[in-house]
Amino acid sequence: MLGLPGPLGGVRAVAVEGLTQVGVHPDHSRRGVLRAMVGSHLEWTRASGRTLAVLKASEPGIYGRFGYGMASVAALTSFPAGTKWTAPQGIVDLAEATHTAMATAEPEHAERLYAVWSACANVHLGMVARSVEDIARTTRDVPELRVGKEPRRLMFATREGVDVGFAWFRRDGAWSAGRPAGTVDVTWFVGVDQGARLALMRRLVDLDLVTSVVNWVAPDDPLVTWLGSPRALDARTTDSVWLRIADLPAAVAERGYAAPCDLRIEVRDHVIPANDGVWRVVADATGIGRAERTDGAPDLTLDIADLGACWLGGQTIGARAEAGFVVEHRPGAVLALDAALRTLTLPAQAADF
Ligand SMILES: CC(C)(COP(=O)(O)OP(=O)(O)OC[C@H]1O[C@@H](n2cnc3c(N)ncnc32)[C@H](O)[C@@H]1OP(=O)(O)O)[C@@H](O)C(=O)NCCC(=O)NCCS
């Protein structure tokens, strides 16, 4: 599931195809095997009725040529032990009404984690929720993969007996010069609201014998905003989700829009010819959109990867135009498409899959 922009600022979860790690034996590389695999994956995506395919890239130079756009960004944050967040009182009240409890992660937790995660994909833009089977496989403890750290732990957040979030993490138990120097390494961090997230993070920075909590977040994550400045963080950024629009007219109808538009867009797609050509894209005042083929002269020209980059609001059409990727033929067309695709927040950082 992926948290997609809904009409006029909402978010709704939709099923998408995901591509996990790919590998080609070095004896057979650079002969088109990856190209064939991605082509087959995208055909399968369309045949299964999905409009979007997503992946996380080990190298950024590979997937743009297949029509994927870099759709969200992750910032590495390191919160020192004892960090105090100055969140508004309403959020503090929610956090204080939230109970946290730890467990060692087991495949048996998968259904419980999926229930919270899929609920979050309906409220957090760009959130990718893994399937029950995938969570069960990932939470199985493999001692050889601990690399000197403890088994993975879960911290559940509950409110009035209902799960509202969880963190999946492990500590390294490091010591330096007779002092604790450990790190809490968080891999999944999910909360249905910001109170649940604050409660989890407050508890994580309060664990004994650690000096910091390391987590990947969106650059505009409230955990950063509540600290007043990104200077408080030793933040490095990387690309998170790459998104590929597999079926353009279906994807246009599936997504919601922030502002009305009526544009003729020339879309270049060298991998999926069914998307290639000039489309009339209309979004109405209720944030519902549709796309149909047209023969008219285009208002602007872009690559399918430009739309993928902007589909979750992680990049803007304006910035893509400034960089020269989106070409405007009618004044105002870039502004209109930019306004329609805008989102209230940046997309969430998505856990690996
Ligand atoms: C990356 C990998 C999957 C590529 O497979 P491959 O079969 O050699 O790729 P192809 O021959 O189909 O190449 C397709 C295109 O991608 C390009 N490409 C391949 N690997 C690339 C890389 N590491 N960086 C940039 N471009 C790359 C090729 O030049 C080719 O471009 P072109 O069509 O414009 O000429 C393979 O080299 C591999 O297994 N590497 C190690 C594991 C890895 O990095 N996996 C990737 C992410 S999980």
UniProtKB/TrEMBL annotation:
Positions in coiled-coil regions: none
Top-level taxon in the UniProt lineage: Bacteria
Domain Eis-like acetyltransferase: 126-245
Record Pfam families: Acetyltransf_17, Acetyltransf_9, SCP2_2
Classification lineage: Bacteria, Bacillati, Actinomycetota, Actinomycetes, Micrococcales
The protein, known as: GNAT family N-acetyltransferase
Positions of the Enhanced intracellular survival protein domain: 248-341
